[in-house]
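Reading a protein record of the kind used here takes little practice once its layout is understood. An example of such a record is reproduced below.
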Amino acid sequence: MRDLPVTQVVELGKFAEDHGYSSIYLPETGNRTPDGGLSGRSPWISLAAMFAETEHVGGAVGVAAAPFRSLPHLALSAATLQEQSEGRFSLGIGVSHREAADRLGVPFPTSPLRWTEIACDELMGQARFGLTFGKGFPVLVGALGPKMVELGAARSDGLVLNWLTPQHAQETVELARNVGQANGRTPYTVLYVRLSPDEALHTDAVNYDAMANYHHHFVRQGLMTPEDVVAGTCLRSDDLGHAKEQLNAWAEAGIDLVCAYPHGLEQAEYETALAALTA
């Protein structure tokens, strides 16, 4: 879920426990608006509030824009939520993208792969051995291209994926499993799948296609237009029967956790849609 008020995240956690959802994934969405303001609520604070009011549902920052803060502070924030939730927290990390870094006035890594490699080693080590509290949280890498998929599969607990057709999800899972096996790991795969009205899906596809890394991601899958992107990678909230069938395709592709990502819906609308998907 994107940029919800804290009270709605708490309500969403309770809703998830009542409707068979295992986890809530919140991306970091902090950004500068066109008029120079700031938007994007903290997923860390929202998850802390949710954990305080729930018993079973997991929660993840998926993904944190990791280059925008120090790795020790990331580890400490993750450990705090892991301790509070008694083991229900997962940490997703990613390099974000150059456009977001430029808007916020922060440096973007000259080598995203090398930066992620260093971050994985630091955070995996802290999660297992270094922290004095809150150990044991999984570290997942946000990945688009095959090189980042390989790195995440080799050096972390798994991957957070985005904008994938079922066919390319299967290929990505196979690549991750092969690389993981060669490195003694079984990578866990999470895939965001947008659930929105058609207009909101189209707008999102256009906006993401304007960013170079996502444009290449779409082209690799043969998705040449926003309409292709929506048809191949998204769920329409006005056709929930078909959406439920589509979810099965990603599960059959081997994705461990398909993360329905409502956007452009009011609370009553996304609760109705999410309830229908697990009915």
Notes: The beta strands are 23-26, 31-32, 38-39, 58-65, 89-94, 139-142, 158-162, 188-196, 235-236, 257-262.
